[in-house]
User: Fold these one by one.
Assistant:
Number 1:
Amino acid sequence: KLLRSPGKECPRFRALMTETFESAPYQRFLRAHQSFVEALSNHTGYPVSRLVGKKIWRVYDTLTCQRIHNLTLPRWATLDVLDTLRRIASFEVTYSILGHKRKEKAR
């Protein structure tokens, strides 16, 4: 059997993830990319609050899959945008796992 993330079924895990994305290091990173996230919100239709900590990775993954399969990307999805998305998504995933209270999240 594979281990699975507790996700929605565990209120404590959800609270820890909220703390993670409200933590000072994450907020500093987010402020440094605020204008990018706001532009991404305009392009995708996701509110900033849904992009942060949740949908940025999905947007990056979707666009990357489209690019790999030679599908037409939206005009705004330039290589620079994809690179910035990759960096933000990588930070979010890494920080959510290895950052704030990682030992408690791993229980």
Note: Helices lie at 11-22, 24-32, 34-44, 48-68, 79-98, 102-106.
Number 2:
Amino acid sequence: MANQHNNEEHKEQWVEVAVVTSVGTYPANGYSKVPAHQKVEDDLKNAARELKITNTEDWIARVGEKQIDVDQTYIENKLVGQVFINWGPRGFTIFVNNNPFITYEHKLTGAQIKTLAGVPADYELFEVKGDQTVPVGNDQEVHIHEGMHFRAIPAGTFGKDGIAS
């Protein structure tokens, strides 16, 4: 009986994996069957090679809403069965008028921030820094960080004490 238990422990476990990127899906159709003890990174490297993606340095992998550790195996990530991996650049969530928007850009102009948020081009844009607001011009470039807050208001509209509301 000990032999039978030992054989079951070493029985190969498999997962079926599909990797989805902004460039395409790997494999192009269906899933690839891989050992569950394999690192996720191995499949991502295969996807990058097949899809001819060259710079994945800042990319993250997600299954559903959960970010997974690509240096771990499928088993260590608690992934079983069919696994659908979304793989792409790390996005930044910024807020415009308290509404969240995701961008993958590290720099945006004021005009690009307004476009992302669906704000009319003639609105004024302000970056909120604590209790201060700093004007952001249409052509002014902003270094984007996670959780930044902006206010967009009709031109010439100011709240109490001249602060954008």
Note: Residues 40-51 form the longest helix (12 residues).
